[in-house]
């Protein structure tokens, strides 16, 4: 059968190609990766000791979560000095060595840029609260409204977004923890100081930034009250605010565009229409993390409640982003990061089909159009941990919300809220990397700062290395396939079964020098055995990869095993 030819103008031009589009990123949360000095906390030398492992995955870029000086109220997202390394993680010399060793292995390093807020301990804030004229307008200070805070905005971590400061006798805005005051980006000096900091790191030779909550910088004039019924009260006044594009364009023009780097913005509540303004070919950033697919298992809008999720909704979201970004906008693809529970525990089956579903979810992420981000441990199929008692929790977000749930509803104790907290806590992503089956999973010799997942006796790097069929080795195959097939990077995406409730099937198609290549991906997202007819045309179908032992049978009608994934080449 002849294949469906796409138009020759689908050819990817040299202008459209970029190293960061062809890269696979691996995210390291240094606090939980590897501890070299026996204090129970991961560190930079520990990470450097494991670079060969990361390189063995075939990935191209490492994204390092914040390692700057910080009181660690929000694990480093509360920065007290942008140009110093947090002592427990090591020294600037350790960091410089790390960068060199990453580059020696032909990988790149991107750093986390957290400039919506600083720590309360940052010198700028210390000066600002004392009313030093140079810094008094570095943060968003307001008088209260009588006994009440200046408006009804809420912190993402719960409660009011305003904190009264006795010293300055005014409220300051904090969209996250009280320890994380928001900078006032309307102040030109703030912008210049941040741009200088960005340049300082780029001059050190890094390869780009992941930008924390970067679409929150611009707050609406007058800071009006928000809709009290919305998911995050006030967000319509501080997400994608009026000056947002102008700030990022200035950052790009003054600093970013002078370097050959990659930038990815983390953007809560981002829609595909809004995204095009940030990440089109001439937008200020290269790509953005949106959150739409991470909310499928909320109960409606409610994050601290668990709902059933629907595959057709996932298809709708993914389809919108795969095809809807205008002006050559590029996607950032992820399931997990340090804020998300483990994906196998959400959209897979961690009990009956851990291995199969981990591979299925990996197949999906690595065969879409965009740059994939693998979070440490995802390549092992790590799962959520049990959070038996409130004392096990470490994350300010989980602790605050657990307390809020306990206060607001008719609950007697932690056991009543445990299911939802254990499911949703960001701590699930932060349990130590599982290197082996020893007491602390090979992460540390001391007591780790957070519990090790008890399943490390089975799920660990050492065991996975020894097992040809492991999730780890399958991820290596996926990365390798992606690196060899441009079609998986640049090819057009077409959903073949948008309405099917358990099977996801799509093609990726690319034409180059008059030749069309088509790759077919077939994914059974559940534990049953569906048979599907696929509208594909081809002369020959070659099975490139599957998480089951399969031969090259014809893909126009297939019966799939639980969580089965297949990738075919169609000629
Ligand atoms: O997160 C921003 C944020 O609001 C979300 O990532 C949130 O944690 C997610 O929606 C949960 O589903 C960033 C950092 O990634 C996070 O670790 C920080 O706590 C936060 O900013 C504040 O800096």
TrEMBL record:
This is Alpha-glucosidase. It comes from Haloarcula rubra. Signal peptide: none annotated. The keyword S-adenosyl-L-methionine does not apply. InterPro entries: GH, GH13_cat_dom, Glyco_hydro_b, Malt_amylase-like_C, O16G_dom_2. It comes from the Archaea. GO terms for molecular function: alpha-amylase activity. The keyword Hydrolase applies. Keywords: Glycosidase, Hydrolase. Belongs to the glycosyl hydrolase 13 family. GO terms for biological process: oligosaccharide catabolic process. Residues 27-430 form the Glycosyl hydrolase family 13 catalytic domain. The lineage of its organism: Archaea, Methanobacteriati, Methanobacteriota, Stenosarchaea group, Halobacteria.
């Amino acid at each position: 059968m002849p294949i469906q030819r796409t138009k020759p103008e689908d050819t990817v031009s040299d202008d459209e190609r970029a190293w960061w589009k062809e890269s696979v990123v691996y995210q390291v949360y240094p606090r939980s990766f590897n501890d070299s000095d026996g204090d129970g906390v991961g560190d930079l030398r520990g990470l450097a000791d494991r670079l060969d492992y990361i390189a063995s995955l075939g990935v191209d870029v490492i994204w390092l979560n914040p390692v700057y000086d910080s009181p660690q109220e929000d694990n480093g997202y509360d920065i007290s000095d942008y140009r110093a390394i947090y002592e427990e993680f090591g020294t600037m010399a350790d960091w410089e060595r790390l960068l060199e060793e990453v580059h020696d292995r032909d990988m790149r390093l991107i750093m986390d840029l957290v400039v919506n807020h600083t720590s309360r301990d940052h010198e700028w804030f210390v000066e600002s609260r004392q009313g030093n004229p140079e810094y008094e307008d570095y943060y968003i200070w307001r008088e209260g409204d009588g006994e009440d805070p200046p408006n009804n905005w809420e912190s993402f971590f719960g409660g009011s977004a305003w904190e009264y400061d006795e010293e300055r006798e005014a409220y300051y805005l904090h969209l996250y923890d009280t320890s994380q005051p928001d900078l006032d980006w309307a102040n030109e000096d703030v912008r210049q100081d941040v741009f200088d900091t960005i340049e300082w790191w780029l001059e050190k030779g890094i390869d780009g930034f992941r930008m924390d909550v970067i679409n929150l910088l611009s707050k609406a004039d007058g800071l009006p009250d928000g809709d009290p019924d919305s998911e995050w009260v006030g967000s319509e006044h501080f997400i994608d605010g009026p000056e947002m594009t102008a700030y990022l364009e200035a950052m790009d023009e003054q600093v970013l565009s002078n370097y050959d780097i990659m930038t990815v913005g983390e953007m809560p509540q981002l829609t595909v229409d809004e995204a095009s303004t940030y990440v089109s070919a001439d937008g200020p950033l290269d790509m953005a993390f949106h959150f739409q697919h991470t909310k499928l298992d909320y109960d409606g809008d409610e994050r601290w409640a668990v709902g059933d999720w629907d595959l057709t909704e996932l298809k709708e979201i993914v389809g919108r982003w795969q095809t809807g970004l205008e002006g050559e906008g590029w996607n950032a693809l992820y399931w997990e990061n340090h804020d998300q529970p483990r994906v196998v525990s959400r959209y897979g089956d961690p009990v009956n089909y851990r291995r199969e579903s981990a591979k299925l979810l990996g197949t999906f992420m690595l065969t879409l159009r965009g740059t994939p981000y693998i979070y440490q441990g995802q390549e092992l199929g790590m799962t959520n941990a049990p959070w038996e008692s409130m004392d096990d929790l470490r994350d300010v977000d989980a602790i605050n919300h657990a307390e809020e749930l306990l206060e607001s509803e008719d609950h007697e104790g932690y056991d009543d809220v445990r299911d939802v907290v254990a499911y949703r806590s960001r701590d699930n992503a932060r349990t130590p990397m599982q290197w082996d089956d020893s007491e602390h999973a090979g992460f540390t010799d001391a007591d780790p700062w957070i519990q090790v997942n008890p399943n490390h006796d089975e799920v660990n790097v050492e065991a996975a290395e020894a097992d040809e069929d492991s999730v780890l080795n399958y991820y290596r195959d996926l990365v390798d396939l992606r690196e060899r097939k441009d079609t998986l990077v640049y090819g057009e995406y077409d959903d073949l079964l948008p309405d099917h409730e358990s099977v996801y099937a799509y093609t990726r198609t690319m034409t180059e020098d008059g030749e069309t290549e088509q790759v077919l991906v077939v994914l059974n997202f559940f534990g049953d055995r569906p048979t599907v007819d696929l509208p594909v045309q081809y002369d020959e179908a070659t099975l490139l990869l599957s998480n089951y032992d399969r031969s090259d049978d014809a893909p126009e009608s297939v019966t799939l095993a639980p969580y089965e994934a297949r990738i075919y080449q169609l000629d």
